[in-house]
Design a protein that fits this description.
The longest helix is centred in the middle third of the chain and has 22 residues. The chain has 18 helices and 17 strands. Helix 5 packs across helix 6, helix 6 packs antiparallel against helix 7 and helix 7 packs antiparallel against helix 9. It is of the alpha+beta class. Helix content is 35%, strand content 13%. The radius of gyration is 31 Å and the shape is globular. The strands form 3 sheets. Strands 4, 5, 8, 9, 10, 11, 12, 13, 14, 15 and 16 form an 11-stranded antiparallel sheet that branches.
Length: 649
């Protein structure tokens, strides 16, 4: 702040007051000369968070640099020829220095880049991923046909790759030391982009990020560490001061810019087209507020809206859904129907008194296997109990309780898909034919353990008085320590082992959606579990929450960020597969590197910069700004293009 008070108010640029040239800086002036006009506000100097770093673009740029370097992309890789000359000039990592082979200049392949075979494996891995409905775009279209490059990634594509796919895909393709460091960086972004950001997590991440960057410096060349890598260090502090990033990042603004660009009909007059389109949109919005009998943007249901269900007194009758697809009547065998009905009764908290009463009667009878007898006999006992109470007009017996005790119809309705609580579920038989994946389910256990499976059937059991219960019949995977492994916040599960074959049902309202991606590091029978937290779905009911989007993780505490600098041994960064890259120009034709020709500009050097050089720098900066503006992601305001829009996508 003392330096800020020393800054003088000057006129920038080549002003006529200075003879049409740039003003020379005095000896008492600092190397930065502009004081923001916001400091004229009386409260500005007291604001702790004066600048807001955009996490969206920082994450995208880091993903481009990281993925481009791993893939060896000639346009985005930081492992360039000049980066190797940097190593030679600095006298470090001699195994990666350029060397001559006759009249050719060769570049050794680095350990932090994929080989050609691994590059194709990673592309096939990205191509195979299928996301849930509305989660992300189809990434298969960004993979080149020969499985050699990944191109055309938008900001949200980089967001998904950075937090979901890169930690899984790189584990078996690069050295474990390198992959663990990349996973740690991706875990931090998972923490940062969560709905609920814990201040304690951000304080720890602020210290651990320093170690992560130190580990990255021991792996990647110095050219990798641009300003975007440095800005990561400031993100935890900004999260502590400014709150969760979904309230501050650029996704909604970029989408709105896309809407404004869609107003352009005359390319010669874009500003006028945007103005006219905005006025028309405002007029239509105003008029639509007076329309009650037609569909407008204010009363249009969401894509996965499950409608309005009637309120029930019994919890199990609240398990409803909006069916999708063709309805079919299915005859359910008695054994399966008995298991389904017992599950419905056992998950009805309103009849817990009757459940305990029946268990006590079994104990008094001296039953050898009370749990099995309770499972087989409770439905009939409950039926007789409720009907006996109904004959004496007991006030406890309601229409819902009587219907529940009367058992279900022998024929049930089956659907291929449904929407439950704003989430779309699809049976596995239909899901394999789609480009989306909506068949993964999970439920928490009694001891907070998680059970994972695939949705096999959607069944609606009908009861008396037009009551019904929707059940999901699932294939549950075995979740013991041998078949489910969690490492670096990545949970892998073996899908060949099935468990709970006699207990396959859950209520539709109990299901939580997950999706599975292949695990290249463990084999074809292993899948990585990815949890989904859908946007517009919150555990609390407060106004305005439905406008927040792109939220895919619930809490920063769900991810454990632990790094240890001592775990990074000294590794040889040259790949031992003998792969080298031929550089076309011979080494003798290359001029001396920038370190030998251009020194860093200090305060005195800047005064010697000529007027001609200033013009060149300004023109170059203008060109870069124009290119950057053209490359800014303007994603769709609606879900029609940047997200899966239908099952037929």
């Amino acid at each position: 702040m003392d330096q800020l008070r020393r800054v003088k108010t000057t006129i920038p640029g080549k002003h006529p007051n200075y003879g049409g040239v740039k003003r020379k800086r005095g000896d008492d002036e600092l190397n930065w000369r502009k004081k923001s006009i916001f400091y004229e506000l009386p409260y500005w100097a007291k604001i702790e968070l004066k600048h807001n770093l955009d996490v969206m673009h920082i994450e995208k740029n880091i993903c481009d640099s990281l993925l481009g370097t791993l893939m060896g992309d000639p346009h985005k890789s930081k492992d360039t020829d000049n980066a190797r000359r940097d190593l030679q000039n600095l006298g470090i990592r001699s195994e990666l220095h350029l060397y001559e082979d006759g009249n050719k200049l060769m570049k050794p392949a680095a350990e932090y880049t994929f080989s050609e075979a691994n590059r194709r494996k990673f592309c096939r891995f990205v191509r195979s991923v299928k996301f849930p409905d509305g989660f992300a775009a189809n990434l298969w279209k960004n993979v080149a046909q020969n499985d050699s490059r990944i191109v055309g990634l938008k900001s949200h594509d980089c967001h998904v790759i950075m937090q979901r796919l890169l930690p899984v895909g790189c584990r078996s393709l690069v050295n474990k030391t390198i992959s663990s460091t990349i996973i740690e960086l991706c875990t931090f972004f998972n923490q940062l982009c969560a709905r609920t950001v814990n201040v304690t997590d951000m304080v720890k991440a602020q210290d651990q990020l320093v170690i992560i960057l130190c580990k990255l410096e021991r792996i990647f060349p110095p050219a990798f560490f641009d300003i975007m890598i440095h800005l990561v260090l400031h993100l935890p502090e900004e999260a502590i001061l400014g709150g969760p990033v979904f309230m501050r990042w650029m996704y909604p603004f970029e989408r709105y810019l896309k809407r404004l660009k869609d107003y352009v009909r005359n390319a010669a007059k874009p500003e006028g087209s945007i103005s006219e389109g905005y006025v028309v949109d405002e007029a239509l919005t105003f008029c639509s507020r007076y329309f009650d009998d037609i569909e407008t943007r204010f009363n249009r249901p969401d894509r996965n809206d499950d409608g309005i269900h009637r309120t029930r007194r019994l919890f199990v009758f609240e398990s409803q859904c909006k069916p999708m697809g063709k309805q079919s009547q299915v005859y359910v065998e008695k054994n399966m129907r008995d298991r389904a009905e017992f599950y419905i009764l056992n998950n009805s908290p309103e009849i817990e008194t009757y459940l305990n009463q029946h268990k006590q009667e079994l104990q008094l009878r001296g039953c050898l296997n009370p749990d099995k007898a309770h499972r087989n006999e409770f439905a009939d006992w409950f039926f007789e109990k409720i009907y006996a109470m109904n004959r004496v007009h007991a006030p406890e017996v309601t229409h819902e309780l009587l219907s529940l005790a009367s058992k279900s119809n022998v024929f049930v309705s089956s659907y291929p898909a449904c929407i439950v609580n704003g989430v779309r579920f699809v049976t596995y038989a239909r899901d394999v034919r789609l480009k989306t994946q909506n068949s993964g389910v999970s439920v928490p256990g009694t001891e907070n353990e998680m059970f994972y499976g695939q949705l096999q059937e959607i069944l609606e059991f009908s009861y008396l008085n037009d009551f019904s219960v929707v059940l999901f019949k699932c294939k549950w995977f075995r979740c013991d320590s041998r078949r489910m492994v969690t490492e670096n916040n990545i949970t892998s599960i073996n899908i060949t082992s099935e468990s709970y074959k006699d207990d396959q049902f859950i209520l539709a309202s109990q299901a939580q959606q997950v999706f599975y991606v292949e695990d290249p590091s463990r084999g074809p029978n292993w899948r990585v579990v990815q949890h989904v937290n859908h946007r517009s779905i919150w555990d609390i009911t407060e106004d305005g929450m439905s406008d927040i989007d792109l939220l895919q993780d619930n809490s920063s505490s769900n991810f454990t960020l632990f790094v240890d600098l001592g775990n990074l041994p000294q590794i040889n960064l040259q790949r031992n597969d003998g792969d080298v890259i031929l550089i076309l120009q011979p080494f003798t034709a290359v001029s001396q590197h920038v370190y030998e020709t251009v020194s860093f500009l200090n305060d005195d050097d800047e005064e010697d910069v000529s007027e001609e050089d200033d013009e060149t720098v300004e023109e170059s900066a203008d060109e870069e700004t124009d290119e950057g503006n053209d490359a800014v992601d303007t994603e769709e305001d609606d879900d029609d293009h940047s997200y899966h829009t239908s099952d037929s996508d």
